[in-house]
Each structure stands twice: as C-alpha cells, then as structure tokens.
Design brief:
The protein is about 50% helix and about 20% strand. The strands form 3 sheets. The protein has a 5-stranded mixed sheet with strand order 7-6-8-5-9, with helices on both faces. Strands 3-10-4 form a 3-stranded antiparallel sheet. It has 13 helices and 10 strands. About 45% of the residues are buried. The chain has about 280 residues and is of the alpha/beta class.
Length: about 280
C-alpha cells in the first residue's frame, strides 16, 4: 500500500527533499506519496487521517497525543537561533501590547505566547496575521512570521524594526534546545500497517542523513529556488538540527510543561514512539 507522507513546503525541509530525490525514494520500490502543506495544514491532515506520517507542529502532537506516535529519529529543532522564526517588533518586548500571529505554525504561536506570558510577564492581544508584514506592523506592535517569510524578515529587515529569534529567546530562558516539529504517525495506521510504516520511517531517516551529509550540494541546489545567498543558506542549514536524541526530547517536554503553565496545553503529554508501539504489537 502507499504511505501518504506529509511534506513541509519550507526551506527547513529542503535537505530531506534533496535526499528523497537523490536517493530515488519517490520512484523506487517503496510506495510513498508526498503530500505538501504548511505545518498547520499537515497538523489538520494527520488528525483527519488524510496523511499517515508526517512532520507536524510539536504542539500539535501534545494536543492529539492519545492518537499519535512519534518517530524517535527525526525532528526539526535548534539549540539557540533558528533564523526562520522571528518576532518582528516596533517596540521593546517588555512593552508589547498587540501581536499579529502567523497562521502557518502552531508551535511558534504557542511558544511566543508562553514566552510573553511567563518570561516577559506581558498580557498581549493577538490577531491573525493578514496581508504583508509591513501592513501588519502598521496596526500592531509586533508580528510573528515563520519559514521563508521569517528568513526574509531577518535578511531583508524593514526599517525601524527589530527581529527577535524565538529559538534564541527560548535558549536564553531555559538553556535547552527547542523542538519545533516532530514526525508523527496515527496510532491506528501503525496498528494496521506497521511494516510499511517502519520501512518508510527508515527511508526518511536515510534521506535526511543523506541531505545533511551533502550540505554543500544542498546549498547549491537551493540557490536556484530561494531568494537567499550561499552564506545565508549555509548558516541556516547549519543551525537546524534534524535528529531527536534524549536531550532534545527533554527540551520538548520542558516546552510542554511551560506551555501548560501558560494555558496553551490542557495537559503535559507522554512521548510515545512508533518503534516502541510496534514492538509491543509483536
């Protein structure tokens, strides 16, 4: 059967896509279909059963953890700056009153609200980001942008604004890595198709490793597709961390604990992994 795999349409997933193409994973014996979308779209699709496995916002796993399982091998994370998640402000963080929020990422929104409430002790009004960043900043003190738009805000800044990297703010506060996206599968799919799921998960790990091992070639390939220079692309890929070791799992759990304190989560979830679940089935 064909495993439907979500694919984030942002630069941060380009090393994986490069590996998929170069290794021939999309045209080989493994039956796998890529389903593109921004993180919030993939969150909804996985919850609705429209994809079987994919990268979702880490906060989305917490909100649906009873029905989902995590890959223990891949994530999208950083220790410190991430570059692509920027709070663009017209006034100091300590005096913010209103923020326009991206609709493309659930984790970034929850992280920002947690930071502003618990770290900066700000009660802020929020609205969805509509239109351009420049238009949003005419009506709000700040705007949260992510992905390629976040990178553009950082590298092509608007006059009179300051960019605050949420990964850096998180590290300065907690001294921990931040996990923005996890790869997750539906538990019912894992129960019914464990062999196919494990095979696709393993190939995704190999493709991600391939992309990371060929970063100079990934940068050269991305130059033709994105409006950033060689230096910016190399820096960005070097900042991102795609594995999910225990230290990053602990960083994710701390995020869940603080998000719960801030009212962004009803409970702190357990991290349940695909391979553990499949092993118990056997």
């Amino acid at each position: 059967m064909t495993v439907r795999v979500g694919h984030i349409r942002f630069l941060n997933c380009y090393p994986l896509y490069y590996g998929l193409e170069r290794r021939g994973a999309l045209s080989g014996d493994l039956e796998m279909q890529l389903v593109p979308g921004v993180p919030t779209e993939l969150n909804r699709m996985l919850a609705a059963g429209e994809i079987d496995l994919g990268p979702i916002s880490s906060i989305a796993y917490a909100r649906n953890h009873r029905h989902l399982l995590l890959s223990r091998y891949v994530s999208i994370s950083s220790l410190g700056a991430v570059d692509s998640i920027q709070l663009v402000t017209r006034r100091p963080l300590e005096s913010l009153r209103s923020v326009a929020l991206t609709t493309q990422s659930a984790t970034s929104v929850a992280l920002l609200k947690t930071l502003l409430k618990l770290r900066f002790h700000r009660e802020v009004s929020y609205e969805e980001l509509a239109g351009s960043l420049e238009e949003a900043l005419k009506e709000h003190d700040a705007a949260l942008v992510i992905g390629d738009q976040g990178l553009e805000a950082l590298h092509f800044p608007l006059p009179g604004t300051v960019c605050h990297d949420l990964g850096l703010l998180w590290q300065k506060w907690t001294d921990l890595p931040m996990v923005y996206a996890v790869w997750a599968a539906r538990e019912d799919f894992a129960r019914a198709h464990s062999t196919e799921l494990l095979a696709v998960e393993a190939e995704l790990v190999r493709c991600m490793d391939y992309g990371r091992q060929h970063l100079p070639q990934v940068v050269e390939s991305a130059l033709n597709l994105y409006p950033f220079g060689r230096e910016e692309l190399a820096r960005y890929f070097a900042l991102l961390y795609y594995e999910f070791p225990p230290s990053y799992q602990q960083g994710l759990l701390r995020f869940y604990e603080l998000a719960h304190q801030a009212g962004e989560l009803e409970e702190v979830p357990e991290l349940r992994f695909i391979d553990d679940f499949v092993e118990r089935l056997r």
